[in-house]
Amino acid sequence: MDRFYRGVETGLLGLSFCLGLAAFAALAAPPREAGSLAVTLPMLSVTTGAGP
């Protein structure tokens, strides 16, 4: 049973790592039109602002 929980924990850690990399890559991408992209998570809100 311990192996099962370790496997689940390892899977969740891997998933969070991949999601973190995807979020980092999304921040490095060039911005789209103003108001075209909005990402809202429970503890994080990212929106593209209107350009100057």
From TrEMBL:
It comes from the Bacteria. This is Uncharacterized protein.
